[in-house]
Amino acid sequence: xxxxxxxxxxxxxxxxxxxATFTSPWSENxxxxxxxxxxxxxxxxxxx
Amino acid sequence: SYEAAEEKFLGKEDGFHIQQMLDASLQYVxxxxxxxxxxxxxxxxxxxxxxxxxxxxxxxxxxxxxxxKFDIDTLFFIFYYQQxxxxxxxxxxxxxxQSWRFHKKxxxxxxxxxxxxxITDEYEQGTxxxxxxxxxxxxxxxxxxxxxYRFLE
Amino acid sequence: xVENPGLREQLTSFFAEWVRVYQHPTSNEKIYATFIxxxxxxxxxxxxxxSSMFFRVCTEMSVEHYLKQKAASxxxxxxxxxxxxxxxxLIVLLVKYHSDPDGVNNNVAKINxxxxxxxxxxxxxxxxxxxxxxxxxxxxxxxxxxxLLNDLNSYExxxxxxxxxxxxxxxxxxxxxxxxxxxxGFTFAWLSLxxxxxxxxxxxxxxxxxxxxxxHKLLICLFRFLVPFLRNVEMRDTTRLLYKGxxxxxxxxxxxxxxxxxxxxxxxxxxxPSSCIQLRNLILSAFPxxxxxxxxxxxxxxxxxxxxxxxxxxxxxxxxxxxxxNNLKNDIDNYLKTRSPISFPLDLRNKxxxxxxxxxxxxxxxxxxxxxxxxxxxxxxxIQAIGQLHNKSAQGTPxxxxxxxxxxxxxxxxxxxxxxxxxxLSAIANQLRYPNSHTHYFSCIxxxxxxxxxxxxxxEQVTRVLLERLIVNRxxxxxxxxTFIELIKNPRYNFWSHSFTxxxxxxxxxxxxxxRSI
Lengths: 48, 153, 518
Known about the structure:
heterotrimer, A: little secondary structure, C: mainly alpha, 66% helix
């Protein structure tokens, strides 16, 4: 019968993309946003 | 080839070997910590200070809202002394919000002191404030300065 | 002579020096560039042999450093990974500064250079995997690729012209080579890497979906590896963990990239064992984000009046290739065009079976039928039939029924045994997805086959194929729901009069509960 897929630690109702905070297929809780920094880019000229 | 490998795998002896390797690898399943962004500098033997001296920036410094509260000097300090970090990115973003513009040739930030005297497609010219990060670590006024847009980050 | 110990020692000292440079708190790009210049001047990066040896030494040294640090248990991951992180940074900087010696095309030179370094890392991993067997530790290699993804991402702007090629080099060369079937001891690391937030999304978000084929190939590798484990219902801890990890990755794809699952549904369902009903439903439930699905429970929902119902879904899978063998595709084309020779549908059954002498294939597929040929036949004939219907629709809508495609479908139902019929009906049910012309056509076909089924067992099997997909945990594809609702509600099918709906109390209870929930 499969399993209840809402218990895999992903917020399936999230309005935002899940991939940005997806830390690992093995993690029971992929919403630990604190673990990873959000996506950002530093222009090379900021390297002073 | 793929088919040959699959043939081998689905054959009994290799299926068993693969199951064994898979079971054995369970002890080394990567965790989130293993995928963290590489730490550029990690003290090999950190000096054990009191716990109230944080060893890494507290998570609050990842919060963009905090940067709105910093004064301009702090933003410049983070920008020039926390290079390559998310904090530098947040400081630059806040500086831009406060109408500072990064000059790619002089590697510093400029702000209009008054409405420019001339604005063309290539540049604008007038009196600006800029941040002197190499000299006296202060803001200086520059008159008759031409900010060429090709140098605008 | 790259094996001589003196050289190895010297290369080791260069790498150790680099780790110190990387580690130093005041190091910056200028210092990095100076160090790389020195490496260049020492000739370490010049010769093909010596530079390959250098990267091999860096890989082995950084992995060894990790293993030693971990053995000395006090080491934190950050400390244990220092040499690996340093190596990752060195690779990215070398690629960034690399230029074509002939000055022709620096971008191509950079990609070739990175591909070479990656292949050396793969060779070191392969040797460790082969030699250490159950003691092989996937973590240092995982960290090396994960740090590479992080460092490459930090230089994305400077590497922009070739960034997509870097991702496809990682995908097609490195990760495809390191797939679980070839390196089972690296499986968990591999799935973490291909679903990494700095890899999978970047590949799938590349403009014009140009990264989709590469990721599709990796996902097929995963499913093909899982097949033997998933076919047995009971799972061991490892397989269960691997399966849950797969579900998580698919849920991220379903949530963020549903169109990717929509367009490749055929090849994914072609590989997934028919026992993995929820896994297959997950893929078949995907629908384009710009589409609003009408509530299947809407009373008197007129499916055939939905605007999307006449639109053909995009199928990126190469669904016809399985029909090329034995000239089957040409025979089908010929019959669909001329409805002759009349013997064609009668001979079809044998063409769907695996050669009885090929026992190993029968063992590996777990069936005497060639499931891929059945899946391809159903979709191919269906698509041709939809095309014929659209062409003829100008002259009034001929019934779906008396047509060459229907000859094929009905003859198969008569000729196949229960296993064959189940696989055939499953292939049809795999097309019941979001509102589109395939869903509509195959839903009509399934209901028609139910109504016209000469034997009770056919009706039972049509019902079973639908029901087993409904009683599993969500998600359920929209097309599946509207087909089953139609079956049990429309008096034309006289569903409840069939004895099999009451063949056992728990079955009767099941039907009651499903029909109530529906």
